[in-house]
Amino acid sequence: MTLPPMAGRPRAGRRGIQAGIALCVGATLVACAGSADPEESADGGGDAQTVSFRSWSPIEQTTRQMIDTFTEANPDVTIDSTIFNYPEYIVDLQTRASSGTMPDIVGLQPGALTQQYREKLMPLEQCAADTWGDDWESRFHPVGLEQARMGNPDGDEHYYALPLLVQTVNLWANSELLDAAGVEPPATWDDLKAAVATLGDAGEAAPFLLPAKDAWLRNVVFLQIANNLEPGRVYQAENGEVAWTDARIVEAFDYWGKLFTEGIAQDGALALDSYPNGVNQFEAGNAAMIPLGAWWIQQSDPSKTEIAPLSEGMSGYEPFLFPTLPGGAPESQLVGGIDVALGISADAANPDLACEVLTDWIAGDGGQVLINTFNDLPAVTGLDPEEFTSDKQEQIWNQLTQDWMPNVQWSRYFESPEIDTAVADALAGVAAGQLTPQQAAESVQAVQDQQG
């Protein structure tokens, strides 16, 4: 279903400038060669009819379709865009921010990343109200708006980014491998251990593929564990309401460690990245389960020229939540929030044009094109793909958007960049056997104490 037209949404109508699109072309999830030079492009003070965009998401192929849709309606506008792998994007953004060449529109995550660049971003409430009316907030999933202001200083109610896509973080199963082994997606920790044992005996595929090299993935798995043990406690620690050495948080570090000491994760997990290696293994059928998130449905994007057999209409996959833990919450907790948000540079040459592009991509024609590719879940309600390629794809989409996303209570992000890094480092230490769970918690508390 397409969203109804939004009040005041800018329409086509610019005249007098040659149409054009500058988009770095490369394989999906591969950084664009040479694009990190701030002198080459993305100068926020440049051509007023050109909008520069840098991000790691949406993927290059999807971003191209969004740009095409906007520029077909506005043929005198150029959108200069580069999509990076996430680590390369972070480096590029830091480089541009320090050199005064911030892109007009930037991809952001809430909390740590947005706060790092907050002083270089313009507030977006007026942009939103001019486009969608004074009740514009009612169009968004509440968790997205809540996270968009995560980490703002006391008294600062501005939105420096607006959510483009939202998501749950969860687990995915290769349903073909599980069915063949007679295993259901595990609902409890004991189920998980039993499933790993059965799947390990059944074949050569990794029962539980954990790409633990990535700091972001370590943190989102930990947040699922921590909230399943004691919902909300970990955020109380970040806010200083309880210590990081609280028994339940230490226990969460312990359960993370058990993924390695009890043989649930594969050998060498700390050397495996999520993208491209982990997901390539999963899509090739070499793993039965993997922790990712709602965005995995993008593998079934019908606009792709080639789709792996397991991803065709999501035929080979099943999403499930991280298993419950002994003595913890009786039901698995939903963790998630913003996948990617968009901000506008305070130095944008034409902030009105940047606003027009940003709002179109969130909930206009560009937004519809974006959602048609199943890139992730829409930040606004009522926006669904115009076509499904299988009943299973539609069933999974409805599960993610109707059953899970409206009930997400716990954030997949930390507010503080320092805590975000400290937790990821502590988890790596536990996984490597260099830190006990108690020592890991103490290391995060030490960072907390330094912040005052």
Compute the separation of the termini in Å.
Answer: 49 Å
Average pLDDT for all residues: 89
List the domain count as a whole number. Answer: 2
| Number of DSSP E strands | 10
Largest sheet: 10 strands, mixed
Number of H/I helices = 16
Uncertain runs with pLDDT below 50, 5 residues or more? 1-45
**For the record, what is the CATH homologous superfamily label of the largest domain?**
Periplasmic binding protein-like II
Measured by DSSP, the beta-strand proportion falls in 5-15%
Helix content: 25-40%
- For the CA atoms, what is the radius of gyration? 22 Å
Q: What would you call the structural class? A: alpha/beta
CATH domain class of the largest domain: Alpha Beta
Q: Judging by the overall fold, what is the CATH architecture of the largest domain?
A: 3-Layer(aba) Sandwich
CATH topology of the largest domain: D-Maltodextrin-Binding Protein, domain 2
Organism: Jiangella alba
InterPro entries: Bact_solute-bd_prot1, SBP
Family: Belongs to the bacterial solute-binding protein 1 family.
Protein name: Carbohydrate ABC transporter substrate-binding protein, CUT1 family
Describe this structure in words.
With 452 residues, the chain is of the alpha/beta class. The protein folds into 2 domains: 49-165 and 338-411, 3-Layer(aba) Sandwich (D-Maltodextrin-Binding Protein, domain 2); 168-335 and 415-449, Periplasmic binding protein-like II (D-Maltodextrin-Binding Protein, domain 2). 40% of the residues lie in helices and 12% in strands. The protein is built from 16 helices and 10 strands. Strands 1, 2, 3, 4, 5, 6, 7, 8, 9 and 10 form a 10-stranded mixed sheet that branches. Strand 2 (50-55), helix 1 and strand 3 form a beta-alpha-beta unit. The radius of gyration is 22 Å and the shape is globular. The relative contact order is 0.18. Mean pLDDT is 89; it is low at 1-45.
